[in-house]
Backbone:
């Protein structure tokens, strides 16, 4: 069981949790993730590790409130406990000196990007952060990121904060202005796809971090499989980072929709149950 | 009573009932019936059945106790050689092991050894508990066990009994290995596995769940803290068909499908949060136990038409006879001598069909089985909305990746001595599916018993 130190809803659809996980805090490296299960009835949900405190033995997680599991997570309070956390999982990011590294985060993708950006800076790179969101009130970790970057660009679809436009527009300007050696892009699938197409033309190496459907996280089930360069890879053990120029994003996007119907059913049942007993069932 | 008494039938849930539930199919012998069945045993001087048992259980010995209505005496005899009788009584392929050899089988039907084993184990669990074993004198040596399937659990029990302090590391959130994530509830109720694990915990075995050895901490790191280790990480790397369309929504490996349903309890969705596709028409590729378990699970989840697609003929099907029989009774359609060539998707990337080709048997191949060859022009399409690939498992490489000194064969299976289960690394033993490749529960348990002996020898003598 993992004690929750804090759990704040920082935006209408975004939560931030600081929770005990000493083993994860001890060993985690940028780019890695955990799998969490709230309670006996919960599903196993992968979440990237945004930050960790070795001495306190805690990790920081951000989660988008989109379905039953994340809504349940949002309903948990400091002092309560999460049943299971396993990790750190996946390959760490290859943090080394590349030269100029552009770190692009879209929405909640900024959370996993944060330790990578920090690692890249510490490794002696020039770091340019590009952070994008639909609207100005949807940013996370903006201050933290701006302390890292040699340059920090913020943009929104509607222009309500920073520059108006997509992260791809910002990247185009950066690439026009200077030599870029590596791009790391984390965010919604269409964003990662668009960035990868852009950098492929210029031949700039690009890492993306994939959020496939997962269960075990050990390579046992194959549910997280993605097509990379025509080969089948398991996101949990071969990834989560892959060469963006080789990833079949359309297939990833499609597989992520596998349970759309079931997710709706689950969410309706959950909301109904909440209304009925004012709380979630006994066992779960 | 004598050999001419017919083999006692196991009462079972009727197919039309059990198709809609996840309760166990056989209902179990009553004590009266068990005594009658035990009375059929000839108490052979040279019992052939024992030769057929991978762990050489004293079969006539325990059957005699049952015949004399001493059920607790019977379980004691079994426990001398087997640590998980309630499990083995249910899932062992007795028809190709002990019961295949039973002398009665030559003229009549063999004694129902497996059913009797299950009966006494259930009796012990539900009616009259054996007194908890008293662990041996506490030893100041620590042992790590990596993986909590039947191999790991066996070693844990033996070493805890011998007085060692035992820690089991398990990657998943529940110990038990394939017994909890793979084999379905209707064949092996999970309460049986829980009972065994609780007994180990009561013996002082420490379970560290949610810990994958080889990712952050390597086997080498573990060996700094423990005096010996047993690696029993199983065969958990699903094989795929490598045909077009396998990336579509609705295509599962059997591991994923069964894990969703068994470990994550998707059959109770939406009460449990993990979903699984409940198709109207599904295909399962393969014909082993894993394929039968998948097909029978799909039936129970309400799928009207479940096709089991296998490229060879009925004679070559690797599943236990009882399992394929049960599957057919439950309405699973066997499409034999049929091979999938391509999975078809709709405009949303969702699986909607499978193109198959008919096969015929040609010349025998290396395995001695007649090789299936395609019949040209026989392609046809089955409409399906989900598919389960159950064609086997390789060895999971996570632990080996960060243990370079641990010698493996070309398939990634750890190489271990056949009698002591010693690996190439001092203090490290291995057994179960990670050594043999996907095999059986009883073989994993047998390897565990050998390893336990090897480990105790090593820990006592210090010599490798
Ligand atoms: C669906 C299905 C049906 C089957 N039916 C039968 C049957 O009817 N009869 C029969 O005899 N056999 C059957 N088998 C085979 C049998 O279950 C296996 O042979 C047996 O479980 C192997 O035992 P094991 O202890 O070697 O490994 P497993 O049971 O595979 O357990 C290995 C455990 O190790 C854990 N692990 C793996 N890597 C790590 C790591 N790095 N760190 C920590 N933990 C790790 C895994 O999570 C798992 O829990 C079936 C198998 C399946 C999949
Ligand atoms: S071979 Fe059959 S009859 Fe002989 S001891 Fe074994 S179970 Fe009894
Ligand atoms: S999550 Fe099961 S193999 Fe990756």
Residues:
């Amino acid at each position: 069981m993992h004690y929750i130190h804090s759990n704040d809803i920082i935006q209408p659809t975004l939560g931030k949790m600081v929770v005990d996980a000493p083993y994860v805090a001890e060993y985690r490296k940028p780019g890695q993730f955990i799998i969490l299960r709230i309670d006996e009835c919960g599903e196993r949900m992968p979440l990237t590790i945004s930050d960790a405190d070795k001495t306190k033995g805690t990790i920081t997680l951000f989660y988008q409130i989109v379905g039953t599991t994340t809504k349940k997570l949002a309903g948990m309070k400091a002092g309560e406990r999460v049943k299971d956390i396993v990790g750190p999982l996946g390959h760490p990011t290859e943090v080394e000196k590349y030269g100029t590294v552009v770190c692009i985060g879209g929405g909640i993708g900024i959370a996993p990007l944060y330790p990578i950006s920090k690692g890249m800076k510490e490794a002696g790179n020039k770091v340019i952060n590009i952070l994008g969101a639909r609207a100005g009130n949807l940013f996370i970790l903006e201050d933290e990121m701006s302390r890292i970057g040699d340059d920090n660009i913020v943009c929104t679809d509607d222009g309500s904060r920073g520059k108006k436009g997509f992260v791809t527009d910002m990247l185009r300007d950066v690439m026009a202005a200077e030599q870029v050696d590596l791009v790391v892009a984390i965010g919604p699938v269409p964003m990662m796809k668009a960035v990868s197409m852009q950098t492929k033309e210029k031949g700039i190496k690009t890492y993306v971090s994939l959020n496939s459907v997962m269960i075990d996280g050990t390579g046992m089930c194959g549910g997280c499989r993605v097509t990379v360069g025509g080969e089948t890879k398991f996101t949990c053990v071969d990834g989560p980072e892959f060469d963006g120029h080789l990833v079949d994003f359309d297939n990833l996007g499609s597989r992520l929709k596998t349970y759309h119907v079931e997710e709706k059913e689950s969410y309706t049942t959950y909301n109904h149950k909440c209304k009925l007993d004012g709380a979630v069932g006994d066992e779960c | 009573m004598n050999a001419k008494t017919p083999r006692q039938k196991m009462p079972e849930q009727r197919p039309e009932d059990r198709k809609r539930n996840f309760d166990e199919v056989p209902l179990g012998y009553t004590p009266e019936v068990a005594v009658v069945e035990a009375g059929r045993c000839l108490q052979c001087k040279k019992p052939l059945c024992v030769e057929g048992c991978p762990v050489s259980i004293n079969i006539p010995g325990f059957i005699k106790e049952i015949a004399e209505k001493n059920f607790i005496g019977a379980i004691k005899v079994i426990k001398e050689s087997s640590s998980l009788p309630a499990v083995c009584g249910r899932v062992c392929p007795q028809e190709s092991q002990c019961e295949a050899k039973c002398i009665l089988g030559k003229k009549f039907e063999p004694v129902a050894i497996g059913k009797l084993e299950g009966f006494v184990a259930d009796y012990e669990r539900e009616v009259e508990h054996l007194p908890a074993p008293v662990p041996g004198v506490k030893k100041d040596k620590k042992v790590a066990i990596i993986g909590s399937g039947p191999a790991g659990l066996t070693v844990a029990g033996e070493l805890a009994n011998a007085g060692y302090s035992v820690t089991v590391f398990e990657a998943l959130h529940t110990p038990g290995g394939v017994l909890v994530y793979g084999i379905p509830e209707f064949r092996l109720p999970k309460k049986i596995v829980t009972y065994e694990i609780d007994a180990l915990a009561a013996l002082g075995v420490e379970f560290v769940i949610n810990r994958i050895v080889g990712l952050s901490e390597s086997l080498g790191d573990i060996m700094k803290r423990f005096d010996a280790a047993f690696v029993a990480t199983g065969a958990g790397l699903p094989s795929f068909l490598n045909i077009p369309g396998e990336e579509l929504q609705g295509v599962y490996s059997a591991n994923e499908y069964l894990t969703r349903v068994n470990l994550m309890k998707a059959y109770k969705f939406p009460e449990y949060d993990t979903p699984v596709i409940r198709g109207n028409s599904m295909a399962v590729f393969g014909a082993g136990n894993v394929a039968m378990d998948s097909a029978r699970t799909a039936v129970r989840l309400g799928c009207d038409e479940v096709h089991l697609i296998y490229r060879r003929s009925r004679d070559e099907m690797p599943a236990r006879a009882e399992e394929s029989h049960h599957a057919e009774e439950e309405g699973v359609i066997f499409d034999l001598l049929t091979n999938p060539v391509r999975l078809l998707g709709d405009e949303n990337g969702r699986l909607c069909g499978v193109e198959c080709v008919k096969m015929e048997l040609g010349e025998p191949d290396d395995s001695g089985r007649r090789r299936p060859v395609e019949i040209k022009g026989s392609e046809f399409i089955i409409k399906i909305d989900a598919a389960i690939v159950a064609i086997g498992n390789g060895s999971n490489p996570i632990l080996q990746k960060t243990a370079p000194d641990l010698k493996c064969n070309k398939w990634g299976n750890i190489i271990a001595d056949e009698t002591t289960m010693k690996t190439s690394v001092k203090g490290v033993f291995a057994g179960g599916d990670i050594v043999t490749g996907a095999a059986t529960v009883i073989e994993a348990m047998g390897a565990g018993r050998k390893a336990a002996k090897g480990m105790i020898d090593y820990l006592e003598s210090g010599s490798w």
Observations:
- Residues A 214-217, 219-224, 234, 236 surround FE2/S2 (inorganic) cluster (ligand 3) (CB under 6 Å).
- Chain B touches chain A at residues 171-173, 209-212, 215-217, 236-238, 240, 246-250, 252-253, 255-256, 259-260, 264-265, 269-277, 348-350, 396-398 (CB under 8 Å).
- The first helix of chain B runs from residue 15 to 18.
- The domain at 240-391 of chain B is CATH 3.50.50.60 (FAD/NAD(P)-binding domain).
